[in-house]
Design brief:
Strand order of the largest sheet: 5-1-2-3-4-14
Structural class: alpha/beta
Radius of gyration: 29 Å
Shape: globular
Number of strands: 14
Oligomer: single chain
Length: 766
């Protein structure tokens, strides 16, 4: 009998695992071993993937993957399970010997210079000389040399165990957290002073094991073996302890002092579950500290325990005694036993897990948000409400900020004497940067709602729902996380593709990510929809976002035939329970994104606004000329006119062409540039007169409305939606893919597609 044949709420016991060695090893890491009890919960509305419950966790598998797991409805005897474990251990040992003789590249499933094959493995290590470029060899931030007396503590744990929340609570940082696996994709370092001692915390990516079968596993193993880590805080989800302890046993073999942090202990206690901490510490040979990281409960105790271990080791080394940790490993008669059997032996009579409120709430909500056909409707309703709130609520503070910036420019202009320096300050700096900064409220509101969706656990369900669709176009269910992140910024979205095991799916996701409308494009949408579609702005905005998604899917489908790599692509993903978003985490994440946006205002956009203004101000025309004439004969006007033959079929004037050029550096610069250019032509724009309230709609909106046909406005936002991603995104694609050809292809392909789509939009709208 196959696991896929189980019906909802039926239980089976694992007997055999088929499929490629890499697939079997991934299942074993999650606990699918002979004799393990597995319960089917539900399937997605289209019948695949299917969600199963085991070891206190919920794991989603595609139906074709569930068919590779043989089960029985009767509990197998222990002798049979032991025989299967022995056979599995022998097979694993043989595979390790083979890989040592012929290592493979990290991030690839093929040996250097050899054809790909689905049964290939990731390597234990990767040679930079032979690597053709992979996520595992992508640039990572190196640890800065630590000062004498500084203690380095590494945080290691399974994905979605709350590791980054522990890091934030311990170091005082505000790194991104989320209720799904793969939030941390590179190491993050934070330093603090604790009870008179300087401590440096290193938050490493989440990993299920240290076998180095994936880039994250290899990276974590490499960092731990460098010798720079003094002590490890092993963060464990106490509600999923049997699976989490498998990594603990592997960490123990490294010989680094270690403290177990039992996170989410409040949920554990509320459910009525129990754990004998003293016996667990005796079994594993290390201290464990209950913790609730979201409330900072138990964090100080965990740090104190870690410092005690460091002091004890240093004292033992000074006195010439043997390392206490190494001694405990030698004395453990079970240290070389099968890890799954060993964990089961440790917890058999000291760990009792019961379903808590979060699990019961998840079962209730999943009936409508994951099982039913209404789940897709619910998703689009949620997204529509998010965008509607973003643009409706954000309109009020945007108007206030716009009015304040206009008054500030008027006051400064009236106080300072007439000169080119005053014009630079009022029109170039205040006008250029102000044209972009007014959209800060919209960006903050959008990030606020996305943070709530992430922390609640809803994103994992969305990946479950859309995996069948994504798979048909050559993507993976895990591509959903980077794509949603792309609505905020494409750069971290490209970095988030590291969680996708299949290199082919990872490359396709990278190339199509720029079609997700990042927050930098939002100002362009707001300006042009306010100018031409003020009564239906929400629907136009929603259509643009949906259009970008559809273009990304269509592009992925085509690229699936262009990038020909024979690789496996499995959907094996942990489904977290629904949790109430932590207000401090949501607010910190929202403010951090706002702070990054403001930092851009004071850096790149300020410099670019000044440069654009100077190019539009000089050379000065002789005699009495209108602002429009001065604008056209400037350096910027000449550059815009050079583009005119290319952009004229799209309905763009030369100023809009200059905005496109500026947007190649950063999409916010499009509005900043247009703000500078149209402010110079304010008199001619006002002369046309639209009859609307200029104070309410804004000077830039009025100027664009007065000088641009609506069809050209629609064409412009379509072009802005699809064309060249910013330079930072291009650099990120180069870093993650390891090849410039993928980055350059993304730039060329997106710009060409944008030109064709904008031309069609202009012709149809005309």
């Amino acid at each position: 009998m196959k696991l896929s044949e189980l019906r909802n709420q039926e239980t089976g016991f694992v007997v055999t695992l088929d499929g490629s060695p890499s697939f079997r090893l991934r299942l074993e890491e999650l606990g699918f071993v002979p004799g393990q009890e597995v319960k089917r919960l539900y399937a997605s509305p289209v019948g695949s993937p299917i969600v199963f419950a085991m070891l206190g966790q919920r794991v989603a598998l595609r139906r074709i993957e569930a068919e590779l797991i043989g089960i029985t409805t009767e509990r197998p005897d222990e002798n049979y399970a032991d025989e299967q474990r022995v056979a599995k251990n022998a097979a694993t040992a043989t595979l390790r010997r083979d890989r040592k003789a012929a290592p493979f590249n990290i991030g690839h499933r093929h040996a250097p210079g050899e054809p790909t094959h689905p049964d290939d493995f990731h390597a234990m290590s990767c040679s930079p000389a032979s690597c053709a470029g992979c996520a595992g060899c992508a640039p990572r931030k190196k640890l800065a040399p630590k000062q004498e007396g500084t203690i380095t503590i590494a945080l290691v744990g399974n994905p979605n165990c709350g590791k980054t929340t522990v890091f934030n609570a311990a170091s005082g940082g505000h790194e991104r957290t989320g209720n799904y696996a793969g939030v941390t994709v590179s190491s993050v370092v934070g330093e603090t002073c604790f009870e008179g001692r300087t401590i440096r915390f290193v938050d490493l990516p989440g990993t299920y094991s240290l076998r180095a079968y994936s880039p994250e596993e290899a990276y974590v193993m490499n960092e731990l073996q460098k010798g720079e880590i003094d002590v490890v805080l092993n963060v464990l989800d106490v509600n999923n302890l049997e699976r989490n302890l498998l990594l603990t046993l592997q960490l123990r073999e490294l010989g680094i002092p270690m403290v177990g942090v039992l996170n989410m202990y409040d949920e554990f206690e509320e459910s009525g579950s129990s754990l004998d901490l003293e016996r667990l510490e005796t079994h594993v040979g290390m201290p464990f500290v209950p913790c609730v990281a979201s409330r900072r409960r138990g964090i100080d105790d965990a740090i104190r325990s870690a410092l005690k271990l460091v002091d004890a080791r240093e004292e033992a080394l000074r006195s010439g005694e043997s390392d206490p940790l190494s001694s405990s490993l030698r004395d453990d008669p079970h240290s070389h036993a099968d890890p799954h059997a060993l964990v089961h032996h440790y917890l058999s009579d000291i760990y009792r897990l019961r379903e808590g409120r979060a699990v019961r709430l998840s079962e209730m909500l999943d009936k409508w948000l994951a099982k039913s056909g209404l789940a897709y409707l619910a998703f689009f309703v949620v997204m529509f409400l998010v965008f509607h709130a973003t643009f409706t609520l954000g309109a009020y503070p945007m108007d206030w900020m716009e009015l304040g910036i206009g008054k500030l420019g008027e006051v400064i202009g009236s106080v300072l004497p007439d000169s080119w320096a005053t014009d630079l300050l009022v029109d170039g700096i205040i006008g250029g940067v102000g044209a972009v900064i007014v959209f800060l409220p919209n960006i903050l509101i959008l990030y606020f709602f996305i943070s709530i969706l992430e922390d609640s656990g809803y994103l994992a369900r969305a990946a479950l729902l859309f995996d069948p669709l994504l798979r048909r176009v050559g993507l993976h269910g895990k591509s959903f996380f980077p794509m949603l992140t792309g609505f905020g910024c494409n750069v971290p979205a490209v970095m988030a593709t590291r969680t996708i095991e299949s290199r082919k799916s990872r490359l396709i996701t990278m190339v199509t990510l720029p079609f997700m409308s990042c927050s930098a494009r939002l100002p362009v949408y707001v300006v042009f929809t306010a100018a031409f579609f003020p009564d239906s702005a929400t629907y136009v905005m929603f259509g643009l976002y949906v259009g970008g998604i559809l273009v990304a899917f269509a592009s992925a489908w085509m690229l699936n035939f262009v990038i020909r790599r024979r690789e496996e692509s499995h959907f094996v993903m942990e489904i977290p329970p629904y949790r109430r978003p932590v207000p401090t985490s949501v607010l910190h994440h929202t403010w951090e994104k706002g702070r990054q946006y403001l930092r851009k205002m004071g850096g790149l956009i300020l410099v670019a606004s000044v440069v654009v203004w100077l190019l539009g101000y000089f050379p000065r025309a002789e005699g009495d000329v209108t602002p429009a004439q001065q604008q056209e004969q400037s350096y910027l006007g000449r550059a815009g006119h050079l583009l005119r033959p290319i952009i004229e079929p799209l309905g763009f004037d030369w100023r809009m062409g200059v905005g496109i050029l500026a947007g190649a550096g950063a999409k916010e610069l499009m509005v900043s540039t247009l703000g500078v250019l149209y402010q110079l032509d304010e008199e001619s724009a006002a002369a046309v007169g639209s009859g609307d309230d200029e104070e309410a709609d804004g000077k830039l909106v009025e100027a664009i409305r007065a000088t641009t046909p609506p069809a050209a406005g629609l064409s412009y936002v379509v072009f802005a939606l699809l064309y060249f991603p910013c330079l930072a995104t291009i650099a990120a694609i180069r870093g993650e893919s390891g090849r410039w050809r993928y980055a350059l292809f993304s730039a060329f392909y997106s710009t060409s597609l944008a030109y064709v789509a904008a031309w069609l939009a202009f012709r149809l709208a005309s």
